[in-house]
């Protein structure tokens, strides 16, 4: 099954004593996974999306480099950015997103670390603080049998710890229902066979068809997903003015959820997305729509 989840490990980042101002001539490079063209419509990897939403919120000039999925290990090795996830057997799992900032000569190889990096390096840029103080007490137990386990949040500074925990729990919640998306995976035709074979290998199943989820089993998982989103939705209900957790003001917590919503928006059958968007008073549909102001693919 496609594996899409999280860890939080900073790779290399040089610190600078002054706050550099990003300038268009010094545009950052953002690496995302190449999915079926047109990428603007079909790109749907949740962790890259979390980082894209954060970059756009900060209004940082950057350009996306689209990386074929089988080339990710080569890219990370060539840039000397260590893996931030491991397979269950302990071997490295090389992932995107990855961000290169020439202004500080930094390479950051994890979506959460990218958001933290942007906040620390460009605190006042764009719409401001990505991490305003808020309580994000949502928990969802991780599945101990995942072939690519989620990595627990690193012990980061207290300023970001609440968000780091939220990231891991939201990842666990959506990952538990990711089988709903498998049949809609927008493969890049150039790499489709190789990527399918890799997903099959990782999961130890005999073929791609084994991931299919239909009939009663699908109805059950949709119901479980509805319940899970209901639990997450309780946090959003604290400020009923919405559409974001803090009402009119977006934060990285909304982007964590938004990255996953994007995946489900692209990969679920349309009729199921309409259901998801309407559950719990339309909360998640409204959130998805509101995030479109930060969703430009550059
Ligand atoms: N903790 C990492 C996790 C990144 C991750 O799992 N990325 C997935 C896409 S969402 C990936 O690169 N998968 C590559 C593959 O399955 O080969 C982050 O937040 O950046």
From TrEMBL:
Matches recorded under PROSITE patterns: GST_NTER
Q: Which InterPro entries match?
A: Glutathione-S-Trfase_C_sf, Glutathione_S-Trfase_N, GST_UstS-like_C, Thioredoxin-like_sf
**Natural source organism:** Aspergillus homomorphus (strain CBS 101889)
Please spell out the taxonomic lineage of the organism that makes this protein: Eukaryota, Fungi, Dikarya, Ascomycota, Pezizomycotina
Q: Which parts of the sequence are annotated with region: Disordered?
A: 1-25
The residue ranges crossing the membrane are none
Report biased composition (Low complexity) as residue ranges.
1-20
A Pfam family matched in the record: GST_N_2
Q: Which residues form the GST N-terminal domain?
A: 35-126
Query: What domain of life does the UniProt record list for this protein's source?
Result: Eukaryota
- Protein known as: GST N-terminal domain-containing protein
